[in-house]
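Can anyone check this?
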Amino acid sequence: MYTLQNDLLKIAIKQTGAELCEISSVKHKTDFMWDANPDVWGSFAPNLFPIIGSMKNDSYIYNNSTYKMPKHGFLRHNTDVKLIENTNNSLTFKLAYNDDLYELFPFKFEFYITYELIDNTLYLKHLIKNIDNKPMFFSLGGHPAFKCPVFSDEVYSDYHLVFEQNESAETYLLNMSNGLLTSKTKPVFNGGNKIQLQHNLFNNDALIFKDLKSRKLTLNSKTRGDILTMKFNDFPYLGIWAKPNANYVCIEPWQGIADHEDTNQDIVTKEGIVKLDENTSYQAIYSIEIDLNHLV
C-alpha cells in the first residue's frame, strides 16, 4: 500500500492493479471512497486496460487469430504492476508487456499511471507507449466507486449526479445475459442535467453514455451540498454503475466500450478502440476534486 498526503487529503494506492483505494479528509477523517465490502462488490477503483467491459465470448480477433480477454482487461488484478517513481505529491506505476500478457494481447506496450495530488484535487494521468513495430489497438478507463451516502445521517436518494450541461443523451442498454451492448436505448435526463440516485437505478446494470455534452459532473447531496467533481475531458464515453441496493456509485470515464452483441469481434474495427501507431504514445487524464467545504 502506498500513500500520498497533503494538508487536505490523504490517498492510498494498492500495488495490485495500481488501484486507488482511499480518498479521505485529513482534518475530518471523512472517507469519500467505497470500502470494497467483498459481500457486495470487492473493488475500490479498478483501472481498465486494454479493454472496457465485456467482449463477445470473452475473446476478440486480431490478424485472423483469436485471443482471450477477461472483462475490463488484465490490469485490474495484475500483481506485476510496479511503483517506479515517488515524489512529494505523486506516485507513478508501470506495467509492461511480458510473455504471459502477450498471449492475451499481442502487442508490446508500457502502461503508466500517475496519481498526482494538488490541493483538493487528485489527477489520474495515464500514459500508454506502443514499443512494438506495428500499430496497437486498446481501450482505457477508470472505475472509481464513491461512498454514497458519505454521512451517516443521509440516505442514498439524497444524492444526485449533476452534469455541467443539460443533456439529452440516452443510456445504451446491455444484454443482461452476456454483458454486451444492444441497440436499445432509454431516456435518462429528459432535457435536464441531473440524475437522482435510487437503489433501483441499476437493476438493468450500468448507465452507458456515448454522446454526453458534459465533460464534468458533480456528486451532490441535498443536505451537504457538492461532495466531489469529476472532470473527464479525454474520455468520450461514461459509465455510471452500482450493485443494486449498494451504498456507492461508480463514475467511470472510458475511452472504449463493451462489445456490441452483433460484433464481428475484430479488435481493429471495434467501437471506441484507440489505434496507437508503432513507437508512439497516448495520454489521457481525469480528475477528482473533493469540495473544500468537507475538508477545511
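Reply from J.R.: I decoded it. The mean pLDDT is 97.
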